[in-house]
Design brief:
Keywords: Signal. By secondary structure, this protein is mostly helical. It has two domains: 46 residues, no CATH class; 88 residues, Recoverin, domain 1, CATH 1.10.238. The protein has a two-stranded antiparallel sheet with strand order 1-2. It is elongated and about 70 Å long.
């Protein structure tokens, strides 16, 4: 017979569930969603900004604002090198130079196909060329940034 009797086991609490590996993320997502529904008055705006910042810290993109700014600066430098006439647009031949520098392209048919795809997605006229100001936004894509890093070095 034992002189010490252990207390009965309690079912796990909700706090323990929150501390589980996926529990905190789920909780933060629910909290963020609930707080985003607040009115957008002066206090609601402050709360919303805070929630957005917290959400981005926990679940945001791997390339933050500074990373993107650096990528845009490098992308602009690369596009300027390829823009032979300096008009701010990359026509098909200038695109070929840009694409070759960035991706070490595998041939003119690939370059032409990618030029058409990018023109279509950025809603530009292929005869005028791709606007460098719009083209920089493709560097939000991880693969494009990776190629840019290979060309210039790590961000």
């Amino acid at each position: 017979e034992f002189w010490f009797e252990a207390p009965p086991r309690q079912p796990p609490s909700r706090a323990a569930a929150l501390l589980a590996p996926g529990g905190m993320r789920s909780f933060l997502r629910c909290l963020a969603a609930a707080l985003l529904l607040l009115p957008s008055g002066a206090q609601g705006g402050v709360i919303e900004d805070t929630v957005v910042k917290v959400y981005n810290m926990a679940f945001g993109p791997e390339c933050g604002k500074k990373c993107l700014e650096k990528a845009y600066t490098r992308a602009n430098a690369l596009m300027t090198e390829s823009d032979a006439d300096g008009d701010g647009f990359l026509v098909n031949t200038e695109w070929a130079d840009f694409f070759d520098r960035l991706f070490q392209s595998s041939g003119p048919e690939v370059v032409s196909r990618e030029f058409e795809k990018v023109c279509k997605s950025l809603e530009c006229d292929p005869k005028v060329g791709i606007d460098k100001a719009k083209l920089k936004f493709v560097f939000q894509n991880k693969q494009w940034r990776h190629r840019l890093n290979m060309h210039f070095g790590d961000l």
